[in-house]
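Board notes, transcribed. Complex of a protein with adenosine-5'-diphosphate.
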Amino acid sequence: GDAVSLKGVTKRYDRGVVALGPVDFNVRKGDFVSLLGPSGCGKSTALRIIAGLSEPTSGRVQLAGGGRSIGFVFQEPTLMPWATVRDNVALPLKLSRPRRADIGDRVEVALARVGLAEFAAAYPRQLSGGMKMRVSLARALVTDPDVLLMDEPFAALDEITRFHLNNDLLALWRGLRKTVIFVTHSVFESVYLSRRVVVMTPRPGRICAEYAIDTAEP
Ligand code: ADP
Ligand code: ADP
């Protein structure tokens, strides 16, 4: 089945900017899809609409299971500077169910998944840009969401750090098989990471091409 389905979705901002559409877009459960296109083609808008952070002007958005289960990773890690890595990652759990007993265990598992088990007690300022992004990824995964939405997460990182993160994200996805929608304007990144590349063009943001990436692995 589909994890995410957009039908005839448009978005018009105030002052008349038509950012999107209409767009039809489906993502199968467990797939890794890239949204690729130049700045301003509506990638972020589409992602924010899927996440429920923004209302479409028209059209229909459907998420499997009612769509309550989403992890979002922004380009900026947006960590709380006064809180430890552990507490930053625990935040979504504490917000949804403050008294749950397994918060510590889940945080530990999420940090291990991104290779930061040793840094639970560190503060964000002690971490490199790549490590902060890993914390942000752990925070998005800690609630075990069905869908992971990533908005140009590695765009601000140097090329080598970015390559390591690409490889680790790929390994993570192979292990977890979560649905991932990954926004990027890097052709390399989209082809390297995803099973399907959806290309968008601006004014208004529309889907203009789709490619299946044929890999040897299942
Ligand atoms: P992308 O993520 O591909 O760079 P965006 O979704 O951010 O594209 O933006 C698509 C278009 O909508 C752009 O023309 C952008 O300037 C415009 N836009 C984005 N957010 C807003 C907003 N809050 N208000 C008005 N226009 C916006
Ligand atoms: P990106 O291209 O990385 O998606 P943008 O620079 O397009 O980022 O947008 C950054 C922020 O500014 C977003 O929250 C977006 O909604 C907002 N924004 C973008 N374009 C406009 C605009 N023309 N008017 C108002 N807000 C905008």
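The mean pLDDT is 94. Residues 159-176 form the longest helix (18 residues).
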